[in-house]
Amino acid sequence: xAVASPTVHPQVGAAKxxxxxxxxxxxxxxxxxxxxxxxxxxxxxxxxDKQGIYFDAMRQLRTKRNDLQSGFIKAFGEEYKKALKGDAxxxxxxxxxxxxxxxxxxxxxxxxxxxxxxxxxxxxxxxDVLFALAQRFGYLLGNPELDDTRxxxxxxxxxxxFRTSLGALEKDTALEVRLILFKLFExxxxxxxxxxxxxxxxxxxxxxxxxxxxxxxxxxxDGGTASRRPAPSAQPKAAAEGVTVSADAxxxxxxxxxxxxxxxxxxxxxSAQSAPASASxxxxxxxxxxxxxxxxxxxxxxxxxxxGVSSMAQLAETTQNLVKSLSALQQVGQLTPVAGAGEPGQDxxxxxxxxxxxxxxxxxxxxxAVDANTINIVGMLFEFILDDRNIPGSLxxxxxxxxxxxxxxxxxxxxxxxxxxxxxxxxxxxxxxASIGWREGETPQDDPLYKKIEEIVERVLKDFEDDVGxxxxxxxxxxxxxxxxNVLAESKEILxxxxxxxxxxxxxxxxxxxxxxxxxxxxxxxPWRDLxxxxxxxxxxxxxxWTTALQTLDDLIWSVLPRSAQDRGKLAKMLPKLLxxxxxxxxxxxxxPERIDGFMVSLQPMHVASLHGKAVSTSEPEPxxxxxMAEDDPDAxxxxxxxxxxxxxxxxxxxEFVSAEGKTTRGKLVWHDDFLDDYTFVxxxxxxxxxxxxxxxxxxxxxxxxxxxxxxxxxxRALDAVMMKLRS
Length: 728
Hints:
The chain folds into 4 domains: 10-217 and 232-273, no CATH class; 293-467, no CATH class; 511-611; 635-715, Roll (SH3 type barrels). It is mainly alpha-helical. The chain is built from 28 helices and 5 strands. The protein starts with 9 loop residues before the first helix and ends with a helix. Helix 4 (106-125) packs parallel to helix 7. The radius of gyration is 32 Å and the shape is flat. A hairpin with a 5-residue loop joins strand 1 and strand 2.
């Protein structure tokens, strides 16, 4: 009977796909480099037996190249799955343990040593980023104890996968050739891992996955610094473990040192001078100051409660009785938010309401200090949720129904407050994250996301007694629901990126070698770029409308460049047609006549100058004579803040836009181009909701028509707010 693979968080899947793309690109470069290197080595070995070995290896790589590349990606997929399940994978394990090395084929031993060395080098070179990835993957996978040497996308599964893929070579392929491939793998793949690891880590941060990890130096007992792992040994691991290496094996290992120079182009002296990683490498740690404070608060309450009861058994019994009372209230639907509770500013004190309900069932008299504190803290968490504008009102009202079950979780398992991987905590975070891009409609109950969240909430209210495993089940269900959205989002965002790249290239290729007046540039990178985007998305680049829009763009640029005497007659004949084409494009965008007239008026001085043979000014507008205008401007600080908000936007950030009629639309940033300095946002259904230049977007932020939404996990935002309240 086949065992179903575990459901993983969409962000984990996205990280795996990004790494797959990176690995495929780099391993393709590896085999291209291998062909060149083997050819060079065959020339140097002319007239010897080795020349035939190199030529045979070249033949194999050329005929089996596709199989080797696809086999590597497939093998990595298998190693990745093993790592997700927590299966140990190491070269030592594959060799049957170091104690049995003498029974292993010599070439297999040396390949194992090569893999071990590659893994050690890559792990040490990426120590800090692997630590951060381990924390974030541990959080997403519900395994907070995940070690940085067991990250599913870490160096070990990558290197093991490459070794497996070399099984496609003929069995009698020389060991020297295999070791050459391992050295090339180091050059093209493992040494370039920092780039992709940094991208994946940044992507997780933008997605709000534990954004507050900070790097600190862990102090050792003697006052110095200590690393998380011992310094890498200067000897091969097998030798360090007391394993005897034969003369043939030693010669094969020496080839690796030779290849350091051949592959990397470095001198032996330079290689010898490079020092191993120091044992005093700073060890990153997670900054948990907020959670530590909360834990201290809870511990103080626990001590106070313990002092008021005769025994710890009585303490446990008191909590158990309270949980039973809460279960009874949960089943009868008590404390369900009143109508309008999901609206901002609605003052609902859940803690007081709960105490009153407990008094009615006779449970309040048994409350001890820690249980009372827990009620207050969870109450404050849900008060924050009810007032969190990042989540639309209808979904806030739904999520707030979970207060009683989550209070039970906090009473049963205090690790809820500080365990990033707690399934109940992760479920609440995912519900909040999924809600950010949701748009409140007239009938929210018909929306698939609303239905899914409602289904999860009702399941918790109905089925949760004291088994927190239910939250993991529901979390997996939510991941399955969101996975389809994420896959669709990626494909849509790729299409948007391609579209914007086509438009960028069309405009940049026309403007990069010319200097035209600023008003014309603003028109081109503003409304005309919007028109090109609309035509591209609706009709494509093969349409007549696309060809016409590009021709109009060419004519506009030509019309504002300095013209010779014989060109002026051509310009005079062209202008009516050009202005008509521009007006038609603006009409297609839905611009009102007054705005269209404004664009036309801005072009008049340039065209008049060209028709009279005068130079067309390309300078920026002169600043106001009042040199201290910025200092005197009462809104200067707000304007700087608006610009800072726009310039700090990262891919994946959500912004809420407010129309003149007061309607709100939420969009996720999926494109920003430095040349055009424009931003593209899409809604949860992947439809473009805003295409804005930087100046327009900054003005939207300044005027309050745009607001950046927090991309920090819901429970972390809530805990931070609670701690601020407790400290004050």
